[in-house]
Design goal:
The protein is mainly alpha-helical. The protein has eleven helices and no strands. It is extended, with a radius of gyration of 30 Å.
């Protein structure tokens, strides 16, 4: 979003108001009968417009609003990515939720109660005023069956905390990588890549960490594949290229096609 200053803030506020009042299909801008591929495509398109990194140079208010907008988009994506939950939301939005049918042949027969026994007459007691019903004993209303439970507010805070701390967690993972702690670096980068799958830099270092971990464990074929994937994401990644060359020493012609050399 190229707008800056007050224009970005006003548009983000309007978008936040619109998304907050809609169901997940409206948030992603797709029809209720959209497929899982359409859900993923809509999420990627929305991420290109409202990802918080696009507003890194904006005012603090614009950055905060962009985080809130993106969290609503991610929440809608999480609800609709699963086929079963997407069907639940589709039935809810279109009003086509199935009504349970009762088979009369399997219904329980009516119970025949015995006539009440005559009771002995009791002495009249002083009339007591009826106590008002205890509201604590009233059954609570049940939520509609089949609908997803509401998300607690703390989830939004957790996601905002993830976005806020992500740059530092990336640097910590790269520090583990520099120290040769490949497994620890790979685990940390894997979590960050799951949070932000569009981050090409994180995925580049993730494949590099995988390759170095495989090389350390003697899995040379897997190491080569992961290092090649890292170089495919960033052809100028010198450390991955160096590791791949060292891995190919003694293997005639193994990497000649990769670097275009005889």
């Amino acid at each position: 979003m190229p707008e800056s200053g007050g224009d970005a803030v006003s548009k983000l506020r309007a978008e936040l108001t619109r998304l907050g009042a809609g169901n997940p299909f409206q948030v992603l801008g797709i029809p209720p009968f959209a497929s899982g591929d359409a859900v993923r495509s809509a999420f990627l398109a929305a991420a290109k417009r409202f990802h918080p990194t696009l507003f890194a140079l904006q005012t603090p208010e614009a950055r905060e609003l962009s985080n809130e907008v993106f969290l609503l988009i991610r929440r809608a994506y999480g609800e609709l990515l699963d086929d079963e939950r997407r069907k639940i939301w589709r039935d809810r939005v279109t009003g086509t939720a199935p009504v349970p049918k009762v088979d009369p042949t399997k219904a329980d027969p009516p119970k025949v109660e015995a006539p009440p026994r005559p009771e002995a007459p009791k002495a009249p007691a002083a009339a007591r005023p009826e106590a008002p019903p205890d509201p604590a004993r009233r059954p609570l209303p049940r939520p509609p069956r089949g609908l997803p439970p509401p998300q607690p507010k703390r989830d939004v805070k957790d996601l905002l905390e993830q976005v806020r701390t992500r740059p530092q967690r990336i640097e910590d993972a790269l520090q583990q990588l520099r120290k040769g702690r490949f497994r620890q670096a790979r685990e940390a980068l894997h979590l960050i890549a799951a949070e932000d799958p569009q981050n090409k830099r994180v995925r580049t270092y993730l494949h590099f960490a995988w390759g170095m971990e495989h090389r350390e464990n003697g899995n040379l074929d897997e190491a080569a594949r992961e290092l090649e994937r890292s170089l495919k994401l960033d052809p100028k990644f010198a450390e991955a290229e160096k590791a791949l060359r060292e891995l190919g020493k003694g293997k005639k012609g193994l990497f000649s096609k990769i670097f275009g050399r005889e």
